[in-house]
Design goal:
Layout lengths: L1 H36 L15 H5 L1 H9 L5
């Protein structure tokens, strides 16, 4: 009987963990999708390397020029 109870408790804990993790995993996926779309984000520079190769080499020099052009 005790073993069965322990098993039930363990299963409950597992279920709770899975329930807690699922939204987190979904959020991570959603976050990654959002980041992928925003090519200017620094996190995705390796992924969007082909389109914005200048971003990876000198991101600091690139960003002000994109915003307005006049840095002074």
């Amino acid at each position: 009987l005790e073993e069965e109870e322990e098993q039930k408790v363990l299963e409950q804990k597992l279920l709770e963990q899975q329930r807690q993790q699922r939204p987190y995993v979904l959020a991570q996926k959603y976050k990654n999708e959002c980041l992928r779309r925003r090519s200017s984000s620094p996190y995705t520079t390796p992924k969007t390397d082909h389109s914005t190769s200048t971003n990876t080499t000198r991101p600091v020099a690139e960003s002000p020029a994109k915003r307005g052009g006049s840095t002074s």
